[in-house]
Specification:
Length: 925
């Protein structure tokens, strides 16, 4: 492409034809030739006569100019003019290498990067250049192919949840060394990494280098911690800048099991600061539901930190066989357990019958020998549901006959009568030490201090299943800790006391570590490599570059030490890892991570992603040439006097009809689109939703109303057409009886003209269903972000006074008899127009007389569209709850939607007296 005066030309040689225009001007001036003037006396007889058809003796100058402009427009159009031509390396002639950092740091603006790359591929294709890609995060040998081939593969590139490191950079450079000369377009993520300078030097040695990089500052989150009763959150940014506020969202499962934003916190970067912190104080029950923290507005693995057992303080119930004597705390059966668990667990004290309704995670029985049948039954049911029972032996257990002949259901093994002590009948010659833990034991890898010695214990009865239940033993093979599983829970027995009476284990740090390995407590501090030595962790979920979790599939386990020290990469993917009952999060950003912005040398040109698109204008110029030629025909006919002749009238009409074909079609297309929109909306009943600008929300709204339309079609006489998305600024609202409006925190506020249409819509009988989609979250505290946005959006609307949906409102019986109105959430809080103050219940009627029209608004937060949403096959798109309960909730959501539409279409006719007998019969009154 050749650029002249800021305009590019794909066929610049055609511009040479413009040099012929002066010659063409002279030729046209000579045709027709000027007449020869001769004086003839007889001409005087013709004076006063007028000829209806006249011919000019010379072509007027303005007609010549018109023809010149038409020819010039044709020449320019055929030369392929392009506005906003790009003059970078993509306009060269040799091979082109496109380098991607390909890390999480570019994930938030990945779509912008894809558009910029697609524009470069278009220019390379026009220039006939071959192209290859090199992903620095996942290096592969570059293969040079046509730009059109790479354009089809471009959607397959995705950011990695790690950054390039020295090893991967060296591998990439080894591939480059095997390739010939090329120019380089480097799409940077904005962060520096080891080996980048060497890579730049290698690329410059092969040809010119140009960098594309967003100007936005990269932000990320450090792992969350728990300190002073609150979750400590830290955000980072790569480069210092002005004061900036970021919002941290705590996400997890609500009580219905659905993914929700459970809480938010705001942190502020000071002017010139690169780190900021904030604390989030939450109830333990809510904190235990959190699975991840995200920075609002960011979509990357670095802006996400996953939560693990470190945030969850388990509830542990402590029950002893006897109370500690006053003033002798060290002799209390629970003293050492309390000291070990108090920093990282919520302790519950009380009788077994009192603590079971609280559903603790763990119940510890210290020297409790005998349980009543009712306690055994209740405790067994709790264990079957996933509880862990930890028992400690003691004098009471040793002296009892529990689990002697037959294995007690609350014991992992059978026990021998009596115990084993130093100097007793079954005595050791000296105190015994612990044997190294077996590989299958949850304690495997823990170092055993030399001062841990056992002097007394209760003995396990030999049994065929004993070997597989031993998880800790003494050096002579005597079982010290045994465990068995029961349904979803487990029972653990320490064959020693929880005090220092029988051993020194409760006095050592090993005791605390063993409790942590059993997941009795969750340490709020990150374990180090030595603490995880000897353990193997299996990935349960792994995170991609966008911060989305997916099932880990068949990925192999990793050693515990590597989990803490190995950098993120294909063999150590960020995500959730499990070992037994413990969960550990491996995040992209660690506590000691820093973000270093990249600094490019002055010789390297750096551009942003927002490259203006090239605009071909050949079509416009050729259309202009056609118009000018048509104007030339009209002018020539006019000069010859034949413009309105009877014979040429039909030809004139044909030319006038063809004239709009060369004009822009925007106005005609706009009118046609408006007519088609009106016809589609009025030919049949159509449900509509407000376009929020958020693609996923709009698609869910469309799928939800499609599911509700199908339900109406099969269950009622209403047969809706496909739902329609409505633009409040441009579309007419009067065609739709119901308008579903999902609320998002970042949707723009409509204009004053749009609010005028909305108010007219409400006054003329339309109904708007506002859905904040956050019913359960709002219960935890102040108004949610969606709730605050609803208040802002609804402020200019002419909305009447509202009240919670009363039990006798007509919405509860327009088609189905309902008292609950769930969606994806199951909140009962739904608001409608308040009843008049004088509304009274008439004698003999089960409801008040509210026959005054349709409520103009219904407000709730149950996310009804997600509950209604179906795919093209008719199957639900969003899981609701679990099992039969969830499907029942979905059914009630459909029934609420049917009632809502029937209410809009029929008004309050179900409040008429004629329906009272049937309703009383349905209500059983």
């Amino acid at each position: 492409m050749t650029v002249l005066g800021g305009i590019g030309f794909t066929a610049p040689w055609l511009l040479l034809a413009l040099l012929v225009l002066p010659i063409l001007w002279l030729i046209l001036r000579a045709v027709p030739p000027a007449p020869i003037r001769q004086r003839f006396p007889g001409v005087a007889l013709l004076l006063g006569l007028k000829d209806d058809e006249t011919v000019s003796d010379r072509t007027p100058w303005w007609l010549l100019l018109l023809r010149m402009l038409a020819v010039a427009a044709i020449i320019l159009g055929l030369a392929g003019p392009v506005l906003n031509p790009n003059e970078d390396q993509a306009q060269g002639t040799g091979p082109l290498l496109i380098v991607l950092d390909g890390s999480w740091a570019g994930a938030t603006r990945w779509s912008e990067q894809e558009e910029a790359i697609a524009a470069q591929l278009t220019r390379a294709s026009r220039a006939g250049r071959t192209v290859a890609f090199l992903d620095m995060a996942r290096p592969q040998p570059p293969v040079f192919q046509t730009a059109d081939v790479w354009r089809s593969r471009l959607p397959g590139f995705r950011p990695a949840p790690w950054q390039p490191d020295a090893a991967r950079t060296a591998l990439a450079l080894s591939f480059v060394a095997e390739t010939g000369g090329f120019d380089t377009l480097w799409f940077s993520d904005g962060l520096d990494y080891p080996g980048r300078d060497r890579a730049l030097a290698a690329f410059e040695a092969e040809g010119s280098v140009e960098v594309y990089q967003t100007a936005a500052n990269v932000v990320a989150m450090a792992p969350a911690g728990f300190e002073d009763g609150a979750v400590q959150l830290t955000a980072l940014r790569a480069a210092p800048g002005p004061e900036r506020e970021v919002v941290v969202q705590a996400q997890g499962r609500d009580p219905a099991g659905n993914a929700s934003i459970l809480a938010t916190a705001t942190a502020t970067f000071g002017d010139g600061e690169t780190t900021t912190s904030t604390a989030l104080s939450l109830p333990s029950e809510l904190r235990a539901r959190i699975t991840r923290f995200d920075l609002q507005g960011q979509r990357s693995a670095g802006a996400t930190t996953l939560a693990d057992d470190g945030l969850r303080r388990r509830e542990v119930a402590l029950i002893a066989g006897r109370e500690g004597r006053e003033g002798l705390e060290l002799l209390s059966p629970l003293h050492y357990i309390e000291q070990a668990l108090a920093p990282n667990a919520d302790l519950i004290h009380g009788a077994l019958s009192d603590v079971l309704p609280a559903n603790p995670d763990v119940i510890v029985l210290a020297d409790v020998a005998t349980l009543s049948p009712s306690e055994t039954e209740s405790l067994g049911a709790w264990i079957d549901q996933g509880g862990m029972l930890v028992r400690f032996a003691g004098p009471r257990v040793a002296a009892s006959d529990v689990s002697r002949i037959d294995e007690d259901p609350m014991m992992p093994v059978r026990l021998r009568t009596g115990g084993r002590t130093v100097g007793g009948a079954m005595s050791w010659g000296a105190p015994k030490a612990l044997a190294p833990f077996r590989e299958a034991s949850p304690f495997f890898g823990l170092s055993i201090p030399d001062d841990v010695q056992i002097t007394s214990q209760v003995m396990a009865q030999p049994d065929p299943t004993l070997a597989e239940r031993v998880i800790a033993e003494l050096t002579d093979g005597t079982p010290l800790v045994t465990r068995k599983t029961r349904e979803q829970g487990q029972i653990v027995l320490f064959h020693i006391t929880a005090t220092a009476d029988w051993s020194t284990l409760p006095l050592s740090g090993l005791f605390v570590q063993m409790l942590e390995r059993l997941a009795i407590s969750s340490s709020s501090s990150r374990p180090d490599a030595t603490q995880l030595e000897g353990t193997t962790w299996t990935p349960e979920q792994v995170m991609d570059g966008f911060g989305t979790l997916r099932d880990a599939g068949n990925l192999p386990g990793v050693p515990g030490a590597d989990l803490m020290t190995a950098p993120p990469g294909p063999d150590m993917q960020p995500g959730i890892y499990t070992s037994g009952d413990r969960h550990l999060a491996r995040n992209v950003i660690e506590a000691d991570s820093t973000l270093t912005p990249v600094a490019w040398p002055a010789r390297i040109p750096v551009k942003g992603f927002a490259v203006p698109p090239e605009q071909p204008v050949a079509g416009w110029l050729l259309s202009l040439a056609i118009l000018l030629l048509l104007a030339d025909v009209v002018a020539s006919l006019s000069l010859s006097g034949r413009l309105l002749g009877r014979v040429n009238r039909a030809a004139m009409a044909a030319m006038l009809a063809a004239l709009p074909l060369g004009l822009p079609q925007d106005a005609q297309a706009q009118t046609a689109d408006e007519d088609a929109f009106a016809l589609n909306a009025t030919a049949e009943l159509v449900l509509s939703y407000v376009l929020t600008g958020n693609r996923s929300i709009d698609e869910m709204s469309d799928a939800g109303l499609r599911g509700l339309s199908d339900t109406l079609f099969f269950r009622t006489s209403v047969e809706p057409a496909a739902p329609v998305g409505v633009d409040l600024e441009t579309d007419e609202l009067a065609f739709f009886p119901v308008l579903y409006w999902p609320i998002t925190p970042d949707q723009p506020r409509p204009s004053a003209e749009a609010y005028g249409k909305l108010n007219e819509y409400l006054r003329s009988g339309g109904l708007i269903l506002f859905d904040t989609r956050d019913a359960d979250v709002a219960r935890f505290g102040a108004a949610s972000p969606n709730g605050r946005k609803l208040q802002d959006l609804a402020a200019p609307l002419d909305i009447p006074p509202l009240e919670p949906l009363p039990t006798d409102h007509v919405l509860t019986r327009t088609f189905y008899l309902l008292q609950d109105f769930p969606g994806r959430h199951s909140s009962r809080d739904v608001w409608v127009e308040a009843a008049p103050p004088d509304a009274e219940q008439v004698e003999g009627m089960p409801f008040r007389n509210l026959n005054d029209g349709v409520t103009p608004v219904v407000i709730g937060g149950n996310d009804w569209a997600s509950a209604w949403a179906v795919g093209t096959s008719g199957a639900p798109l969003v899981p609701i709850g679990r099992g039969f309960t969830g499907e029942r909730q979905r059914e009630l959501a459909f029934r609420f939607g049917v009632n809502l539409v029937m209410h809009v279409l029929t008004g309050n006719y179900k409040s008429d007296q004629v329906h009272v007998p049937a309703l009383l019969d349905r209500l059983g009154q």
